[in-house]
Amino acid sequence: MNMTKTPSIPSKPIPRFYFILLFLIIFVFIYWFRSSHSSSSTNGFADVSQLPKSSLFTYTNISSQVFYSETQGILYLPPNGQSAHFVSLKSKAVRGNHRHKDNENSISGEVIILLQGQFHFRIGDGDTNQYEDHQFDACKMGIIAFQFSADKCHALKNIGKNTNWFASYYLKSKEITKPPVDKEGCKKMLLT
Ligand SMILES: *[C@@H]1O[C@H](CO)[C@@H](O)[C@H](O)[C@H]1NC(C)=O
């Protein structure tokens, strides 16, 4: 019997186009994997150099006030003498849309610590009606703390699907029991 050569697969070289396509897919995949799995945070805290810049607030280093337990989660303890409030925010809910202003300036500043979730933050000047909008994802960016003067209008909205958590405390210039809250002065920049 005459052994005929088995027909071989046509040995046309694979077009270069497919190699380029393959490398492109691998590259895009690695890029996607890196950006979705490595948060830009250092030890759970957001990398401030990657966060949006603002003229209305500054970022605060709270690394010595936060304690993390693998089994329990995050504990935030404010600096000595400051009583913080911890606040949850349901999906799509808004808090704030106010400023803390009285004749004595009894509250000089406020610190807000975004512990978990996706937030929309609006901060503005109720006297000039200029404001800024920022979005923060504490799950991706890490824990974010910022400080602003209490006469700035401020509002936080949960733009995620789950309940968010944040903490906050006032920088007081005198001892007060009830913080002054002014909603009227902020009604031109309501976050809804
Ligand atoms: C924040 O403060 C801690 C000490 O409390 C320090 O080790 C750390 O480097 C500071 N981080 C930044 C980004 O300045």
UniProtKB/TrEMBL annotation:
Q: Where are the transmembrane segments?
A: 16-33
Keywords attached to this Swiss-Prot or TrEMBL record, sorted alphabetically, are:
Membrane, Transmembrane, Transmembrane helix
What InterPro entries does the database record attribute to this sequence? RmlC-like_jellyroll, RmlC_Cupin_sf
- Which domain of life does the protein's organism represent? Eukaryota
**What name does UniProt use for this protein?**
Uncharacterized protein
Give the organism the record lists: Adineta steineri
- Give the organism's phylogenetic lineage: Eukaryota, Metazoa, Spiralia, Gnathifera, Rotifera
